[in-house]
Amino acid sequence: MRARWKVWLAVAAVAGMAAYMLWAGSTEERSAAVEAYVMDHVANGHHWSPLPGFTVLLPGILPIHALMLLIGAGILYFLFVVRYQHDAKVPTGLTNALEAFVVYMRDEISIQFLGEEDGRKMAPLFMTFFFFILVLNLMGLVPIFATATSNINVTGSLAIITLGFMSVGAICKRGILGFFKAFVPSGVPWPLLILIVPIEFIGMFIKVMALMIRLFANMLGGHIAVFALLGLVVTYGLVGIPFLALALGTYLLEVLVAVLQAYIFTLLSAVFIGMMYHPEH
User: Fold this and answer.
1) 0.85 cut: is pTM over it?
2) Interatomic CA distance for residues 41 and 24, integer angstroms
3) CA distances (Å), 215 to each of 27, 42, 89, 221, 276, in order?
4) Mean pLDDT of 268-276
5) What are phi and psi of 118, to 5 degrees?
6) Which residues share a beta bridge with 51?
């Protein structure tokens, strides 16, 4: 029965695409509609286009990426508060899957790079990073939503949180003197320290910028590629059908990239914070 439903869903999707091709008008009109749809999907404006040719005007205080952040937070609330089986002695289904990710993030990332004590304290931060970025990335692959992580302001805000723990958190833990000692490699002759210490200090900001740009660039470029390939099918009709297979392959790759980028951001954040908290290691 499940296989039949999947077949019928695929047939319905193809039929809907064909109907849209017939309805949208000339090639120029379809091309303009696709271009507007793709740009609205990745740009942070006040126009939300859940469907090509259909636009919702958002209030000035709520741009589309802010709306996606609220929806993503709502999805996490639903998963971890509403659906999560808090009292289950033997978790099953969704709860079991979520716990597997939670335990992995705690043991293999947080505790691995920050030690037992700090790792357990910082585990909620890294779990929030992973699940929130993952939900936003996957939402960007759903046509009715937009890609909030394709906004450099969103990825920059997440990276600034990491910078805050690398700097303020390290000062609170090790003191100001201990914080600056993290930029002084042991065993290096003092004349070289004049050059190395400033480079190490600037490197802290470069690491954070790399976090910001990596997530932003991957989400922006990948999602535009997927919807541009689908746009060729919509714009040129049957002539563009061969691009459908390429779009499907790129889409599946983007699903992997969405998960991988959430993991990489979380992993590198743990590594960078651990380097500041425990520079001796």
Assistant:
1) no
2) 19
3) 34, 14, 37, 10, 22
4) 92
5) -70, -35
6) 54
